Amino acid sequence: MNLFAYPEAATETFDTLLETDGLKLERIVSHGQAGGPDDWYDQERLEWVALLKGEAVLAFDPGEPITLRAGDTLLIPARRRHRVASVSDDALWLALHFAPSDSK
Question: 0.85 exceeded by the pTM?
Answer without folding.
Answer: yes
